[in-house]
Amino acid sequence: MSHDSQRIRALLARASLVGLAVGVAVSATSACLHGEAQGGDTATRHYDDKEAALARFEEPERDAWAMPKRVVELLGITPNMDIADIGAGSGYFTRRLATAAREGTTYAVDVDADFKHHVETHRDEWGTPNIVTRLAVYEHPLLPRESVELVFISNTYSFLQDRAAYFTAVYRALRRGGRLAVIDWRDDVTCPRSIGCPKPGDRVALATAITELEQVGFEVIEHHDFLSYQYFLILGRAVDRAPKPAPSDQP
């Protein structure tokens, strides 16, 4: 058994053993992932009203600033692609990704069991039975090694605590030539707290995010700046993009 598989099994076993405590931790972590928790420190706060949180994720006004259609078009998704949406929440982006990759599997990854249930309840209504839910833990997305071609993560990066470890797991979950798409809050603009935007001091600057991801082994392929409140990066694994050595002239 690989080291990754052993670690995933250990995390799942631990989650199973601690029971209710994990349920509380999962709620707290999901608040961090989605940035709309009610009061208190980001490491411990949780949603007071899950239904209200889901409704906020789906507000019609979100389309104007999140621009999901344009975002998905720029991802270069093919019909048979396997995708992971980390911090899936209500499935706002998940269902759009799954529609574009209708012949593949789109994993809705979240730490909140209520959000997982919401996606499971609505995926057929959305016409996206190819969505598969995964309940993760805050240390690890619990994606198997080389399981997806694209990992998408929106409004979540700045709330992860150990990003080096987390994105090392993401790196290993990508197949050769796979890509990582990161959308997160800019630290140089004013954005309404009502849409889930963290305080300026809690956001991760674009340059910092790029440096952190490069240290894991990613490199920026595309940087888009059309979103009003967020930066949008598409990255690949540097090892996949390294130039091939020139053929030798030696016989």
Q: Descriptors for this entry?
A:
seven-stranded mixed sheet; globular; 251 residues; single chain; 10 helices; alpha/beta; 7 strands; Rossmann fold
Structure description:
The longest helix is centred in the first third of the chain and has 16 residues, at 3-18. 37% of the residues lie in helices and 19% in strands. It has a single domain, classed as Vaccinia Virus protein VP39 (Rossmann fold). α8 (163-173) packs across α9. Mean pLDDT is 84; it is low at 13-33 and 35-46. It has 251 residues and is an alpha/beta fold.
How many separate structural domains? 1
Strand order of the largest sheet: 3-2-1-4-5-7-6
The CATH topology is what? Rossmann fold
Give the CA-CA distance, first to last residue: 42 Å
Largest sheet: 7 strands, mixed
Q: Can you tell me the CATH architecture?
A: 3-Layer(aba) Sandwich
* Range of helix content: 25-40%
List the secondary-structure elements in sequence, H or E.
HHHHHEHEHEEHEHEEH
Strand content: 15-25%
**Stretches with pLDDT under 50, minimum 5 residues:** 13-33, 35-46
Compute the gyration radius: what is it? 18 Å
Strands, total number: 7
Secondary-structure content class: alpha/beta
Question: How many helices?
Answer: 10
**CATH class type:** Alpha Beta
Mean of residue pLDDT values? 84
- Describe the global form: globular
Question: What would CATH call the homologous superfamily?
Answer: Vaccinia Virus protein VP39
